[in-house]
Design a protein that fits this description.
heterodimer, A: 575 residues, 8% strand, elongated, B: 93 residues, alpha+beta, 3 helices, 6 strands
Chain lengths: 575, 93
């Protein structure tokens, strides 16, 4: 009786795409090793029975070397043999490397079925495989699939019950490779192709000079592209919707309520010059939705669209290679750039992605640098809104200060944190033309995730602020922190509320700054301070879950120290 | 006629001279892995990615003086940190 299906395979062979095909559960997939760090579960119906499908993080062998691999292997070894089937997913374009894990799985006496994925790409690259022969040699069912288009998935399901353990001798590592050599000779034919443009680009992107040029171009281009899409979504869609349709409705509603009442204060907020001001009124129906949907959401959409493109084309591992040198000085290696880039969207997936790093020390450094030096998209959008109207230079200034903090703090942590940092060892995937459906699905998933996670928090944040403001409970807070804020940072004591609120949710915090009428210098300092402090409660939680209480306390102390030093320095040096 | 022992020694020296570490190889140079001086965990990881003694490797690029090394093994492109690349000794044909 089959109860569980495990999907296992090398990194970046498309396990997650197969998983989506089998279960209908949408998961994020990209073109780099290590997209999946968590174990995803779903269900499928086979002969009217529900079977659990488990998508495991990619691994090269059954001897795990990182935390996400460890988890995959442990789960597999736990499951009773008669209740599970292992679907081993292989990349047809690189059969040789993939077979190592397959042979190991067979040697473990696991019931296996092999899916030769990306069979269409193999054809394009001049690789032809004799599936029947491979099936005979391995003694397990082999099915060519193309998960992106869905080809072969049905056949895979039909034959899943044929998966049975085959008795096979245990090999030594060397013998395994010899065996693989023999198999490849029998089943694989390569047709020589001329160098395509894609291959020329692939080559150029790993060479020092051309690679750096491409990388700089890609980073600057992406940044501009994100801004372009974000700004246009705001000015052409979000703002017109809010001002032309939503505001008239709210005005009617406002006049219907008693302006002095608590309810009016809660829902609409304060009227500015007798008008509803989406940025300053601070009501549950005014500022809260405006911040989320007209200021932050457009940038979430544009950021994740561009990130998805970069991920699916296969640019990120190449960046990892080029930045390896620099990141070594921060006690990390090149791969750490991927969690950092994910952190620019939201720190939570960024910190989760540090699971791909091998040592605890690296994970601590990376997670601390992400939560302190990497602003999430919600915060960046608010900084654009806050400082962009004065000058783009201020916005650039915030990024420069953060970059400096990131580098300096990294060097310091590298010299102080205990433990070891292993070296980079990754595979560079071929460039792929992104599939529009995967791109779209991924974008949709991430936006949905943002809305589910952020919207309730923002509403709650605005609610708390409103209640506290109405009952004048903030004076207590402001009284305690006012000396630091005023003396060191040169900020009015009202800014305390925003800074404290910032630990809860950044966009709300910046929203609270808008009515304060701060000078540009004060806004700049507050923006930097907000960027340094942890982005939101969710970051605290994920940091705690991933690295434990001790590391969380360490990181928070570092964060407070960095904020104190940076705030004072900026206040002292900027005129 | 040279004594056989001398020839053996000479060829031994020549053989050693052709052995260099992966990071010393030139771009686009091919070689065969002849020694990996690393702990068993790393050797296993190399093994699973297709780097083992006797395997042919082509070096593709090298970023900076102390940067990572990109190599081609079979059909995959792998990137190894500087220190890791130093642990792999190659024999050049």
């Amino acid at each position: 009786m089959i109860k569980k299906i495990f999907l296992i395979g090398n990194p970046n062979v498309g396990k997650s795409v197969v998983f989506s095909r089998l279960t209908g559960v949408e998961v994020i997939s990209s073109n780099y090793a290590g997209t999946t760090v968590e174990i995803t579960r779903g269900f499928l119906k086979l002969n009217n029975k529900e079977i659990e499908v488990v998508d495991l993080p990619g691994t090269y062998s059954l001897e795990a070397s990182s935390k996400s691999e460890e988890v995959a292997v442990a789960l597999l070894k736990e499951c009773p043999r008669e209740e599970c089937v292992v679907v081993n997913i292989l990349d047809s374009t690189n059969l040789e490397r993939n077979l190592y894990l397959t042979l190991q799985l067979i040697e473990e006496d696991l019931p296996i079925i092999v899916a030769l994925n990306m069979c269409d790409e193999a054809k394009h690259r001049g690789v032809s495989l004799e599936t029947d022969k491979l099936e005979k040699i391995l003694g397990v069912p082999v099915i060519p699939t193309c998960a992106i288009t869905g080809l072969g998935i049905k056949l895979l399901l039909e034959r899943i019950s044929e998966a049975k353990p085959v008795a096979r001798n245990k090999f030594s590592h060397r013998e395994r490779w010899q065996e693989i050599g023999n198999i490849i000779e029998q089943v694989q034919q390569l047709t020589h192709r001329h160098h395509t443009l894609r291959e020329i680009l692939e080559d150029a992107s790993v060479r020092p000079f051309s690679g750096s040029l491409i990388a700089i171009g890609v980073i600057l281009g992406s940044f501009e592209f994100v801004r372009f899409i974000g700004e246009n979504l705001i000015s052409r869609i979000a703002d017109p919707l809010f001002f032309n349709f939503y505001q008239p409705l709210l005005i009617k509603f406002s006049s219907f309520l008693d302006q002095e009442s608590f309810i009016h204060h809660l829902l609409i907020g304060d009227l500015i010059n007798g008008q509803i001001d989406f940025k300053q009124s601070l009501g549950l129906l005014t500022t809260a939705p405006y911040i989320e949907f007209a200021m932050v959401l457009p940038y979430i959409i544009s950021f994740y669209f561009v990130l998805g493109l970069l991920e699916d084309i296969g640019i990120l591992p190449r960046l990892a290679m080029l930045l390896d040198n620099l990141l070594h000085h921060l006690g990390l290696h090149g791969f750490a750039i991927i969690p950092v880039l994910l952190g620019l969207g939201c720190n939570v997936p960024g910190i989760l992605a540090t699971r791909n790093l091998e040592s605890k020390r690296e994970r601590f450094i990376a997670a601390t640098l992400i939560s302190i030096g990497v602003p999430c998209v919600a915060l960046q959008a608010m900084i654009f809104g806050l400082l962009g109207k004065f000058s783009g230079l201020y916005v650039a200034g915030v990024y420069l200060v953060l970059l400096a903090i990131w580098l300096i703090l990294g060097v310091i942590l590298n010299h102080t944190a205990k433990g070891y940092s292993p070296e980079l060892l990754i595979e560079i995937p071929p460039y792929r033309f992104p599939s529009l459906t995967t791109l779209w699905k991924k974008l949709f998933l991430r936006i949905k995730g943002f809305l589910i996670e952020a919207a309730p928090l923002v509403l709650l944040g605005v609610l708390i602020i409103n209640v506290l403001l109405y009952f004048k409970l903030f004076d207590f807070f402001t009284g305690i922190f006012a000396p630091i804020i005023k003396g060191l940072f040169g900020l009015p004591k009202e800014a305390v509320v925003s800074l404290v609120m910032g630990l809860f949710r950044k966009d709300v915090a910046v929203g609270m700054l808008m009515p304060l009428a701060l000078t540009v210098k004060q806004l700049f300092i507050t923006a930097v301070l907000l960027a340094i402090s942890f982005p939101c409660v969710a970051t605290f939680i994920v940091f705690f879950k991933e690295l434990g209480l001790k590391d969380l306390i360490k990181a928070v102390l570092i964060m407070l120290f960095v904020a104190l030093v940076t705030g004072s320095l900026l206040n002292f040096f900027i005129r | 006629m040279l004594p056989a022992g001398f020839i053996m020694q000479l060829s031994g020296i020549l053989n050693k001279m052709r052995r260099i570490s992966l990071k010393q190889m030139k771009t686009n140079q091919k070689g065969i892995v002849c020694d990996i001086s690393a702990g068993s965990a790393l050797v296993n990881k190399f093994m699973s990615m297709g780097i083992y003694i006797g395997r042919e490797i082509t070096k593709i690029s090298h970023i900076g003086l102390k940067g990572p090394v990109a190599i081609k093994v079979g059909r995959s492109v792998l990137v190894l940190g500087h220190g890791v690349a130093d642990k792999i000794e190659m024999e050049i044909q």
